[in-house]
Amino acid sequence: MKATTVSRGKGGGPDMSAAARLRATRWYQQPRWRRLAALLGTALLGAQVTGREGSSSDIFLALKENTTGTGMWIWLGGALLVWVLREFVSEQLAAGWAGVREGARAGASGPLGRGRELWRSLPWVRVAALTALAVFLVLLPLLVTRHWQQVLVDQIGIYVLLVIGLNVVVGWAGMLDLGFIAFFAIGAYSAAYWTGSLPVEPPVVLNNFLVIPVAVVTCLVAGVLLGAPTLRLRGDYLAIVTLGFHEMVYLAARNWRDTTGGTSGASVDRFEIDLGFWSYRWGLDPVPYYWLLLVVIALLIFLFLRLEHSRVGRAWTAIREDEVAAAATGVDTVRFKLLAFAIGASTSGVAGVIYASKLGFINSELFVLLFSILVLSYVIFGGMGSIPGVLLGAAILIWLPEAMRDQVPAQDRFMYLGALLVVMMIYRPQGLLPSRRRRRELEMAEEGAGGADSLGTSEGRRV
Amino acid sequence: MTTEMAGRAVAVDGHVLEVSGVTLRFGGLTSLDRVDLRMRRGEVLAVIGPNGAGKTSLFNSLTGAYVPQEGRIRFRPGRGGEHELRGRKPFRVSRLGLARTFQNIRLFGALTALENVKIAVETRQKTDPVSIMLGLPHARRAERESDRRAHEVMRFVGLGHRLNELASSLSYGEQRRLEIARALATEPELLLLDEPAAGTNPTEKRDLEELIRRINAELSVSVLLIEHDMRLVMSVADRVMVLNFGRKIAEGTPGEVQRDPAVIEAYLGSSSAEDTAVVTGMLSGRGGAGAGDEGEERA
Description:
Chain A is mainly α. In chain A, about 70% of the residues lie in helices and about 0% in strands. Chain A has two domains: about 30-120, no CATH class; about 150-415, ABC transporter involved in vitamin B12 uptake, BtuC (Orthogonal Bundle). In chain A, helix 17 crosses helix 18. By secondary structure, chain B is an alpha/beta fold. Chain B has 13 helices and ten strands. Chain B has helices at about 1-5, 55-65, 90-95, 115-120, 130-135, 135-155, 170-185, 200-220, 230-235, 255-260, 260-270, 275-285, 295-299; strands at about 15-25, 30-40, 45-50, 70-75, 85, 100, 190-195, 220-225, 240-245, 245-250. Chain B: InterPro entries: AAA+_ATPase, ABC_AA/LPS_Transport, ABC_transporter-like_ATP-bd, ABC_transporter-like_CS, BCA_ABC_TP_C, P-loop_NTPase.
């Protein structure tokens, strides 16, 4: 680009200096047109990726089909529409939106403002809304097909439990944990061991419900044993340590066949209550598990919200924002990080027990690294540090691939998930429903006022 | 606040802090070279010196952020006992009763001003997470207590009207005062202020001067102060210590220090007669004549 401009400058008119020529921008160099080109390029790529699959007999088949088919024109039209909206309409839209938000803040006018005012001033509105939500959630499995009932329990319910736990570690204490599923595995194998389902015999056989506290303690101990020597590490280093821990647990489960059953696995008894006068056995029907999970999740959310707005939650925020200042103020940083780590680990353990008892079977392949990464991406997608955010994040990101099951080829589903994550991180890094504190930290980082990166750690800053 | 903290008025005489032979090196660079410092209980001691003289390194060594290779740092709280601070973790130093502020403000910007102070109050509380999650009565009581104390401290530093603002949205001078409030909320006996007047306007400087005096008098907190603003130093400090290239080159009352040839040379690099007059003026904080009357003025 530069070279052509210079050579043209030499032969150009005498009234324009070479420097001025260098500085002048051609119409196609304006950012607006560059953005159009980028969007159209993305659309072409998208049309190829989402279009027909290739064939081994005619290597250009996919290219021919996808370039002449209607799919590509839809993609190009979409790109053009996005460009027009962004370049010519977005300012008006943004202004209108800002007006609505301003109204909300003033609390005087505007639909949003009035809604928020109502929410704050009238407790019964809050109670009514929460009751309606609770009733909806309780009745939800009765409204959907069996397939979706399974998805609700095996995936959404279990992962919601996991993200609530990981949110404590990543969202509140600001530590990057890539091995969260290791504790899930420990919980699941605890359930198998204490119900007498593994090749090794436990000293006493326990009911699945009694295994839950045992698994909590086991995971607490495992979390503290892993955390105590490593939580002094910062950011990236801690992530690698947790990654290594996950691999250790996974490989132990896989290769220690005499004890764990390895890849061929072990069957696990299901939940059972026997109170003498009344007994109940959970069976193959997923709906009772759903209700059980709902109770556990509601209980944990209730407890964790209290923690967030207490001295513990504030200390976590302080550590996340500026560890040096927190320590100088007297916050025992290692102890609070350890606490977050242990709480996260034991939540993961509870999820593991329920998962194993629901499936009635476990093997090592249920605990591969991918699931650790997925849990983390749900937390970040939903909005670190905000419980409604991470719940929504997990629900949406699990629902989406399931809903796409019939629309797109099976092997493509994670590609769309990946694309969604990329777009989300570029345009809304704080997540769907970020916590107020987190959003503020990101804003400060962008202004250059704070040292917080996406995880809020503050390494590299000097005293 | 006043009632509560004045209760533990100066009980023991003598030195609250004794630093002897502290040497701090970074590789080949000696940041502090056998620094001695004795601080009397209840006094305001200022540390001055050119940039890079080792003032902040001294603070970091005292509070546990750096571990000096040699020397002893003994801290004697009013309740008795003697503690060696060298090599102690920063949060343990803070719990012994030594609080600090930072040269470049380090507040928790995404929290409100009140929450910043509450964090400091709560480092002295012992409520366990299980009681908090279950909402037990003593946990609720502790929460109310921390709220009350934080309000008190905020009123003391004059930020009673800014409780629920985000810390990062306060003005520069208010942020400086909030940092002091956070330090005071840990109920220190010795407060280390690292350039509290940097970047503040003249009105804020006067308020700060008064605040330091009140902290010293009403709360009976000893204050160790790093400051470049000589007028402030000369007016609030009982004694001044001068550092240069990590070495203590002078110590004494503000008046004595101003006349010390070693100090004048440190600030100037040489000591000719006319330059001396300029530096003496600068050190007196009044830009010119009239140095040496600080003793009377301060009273």
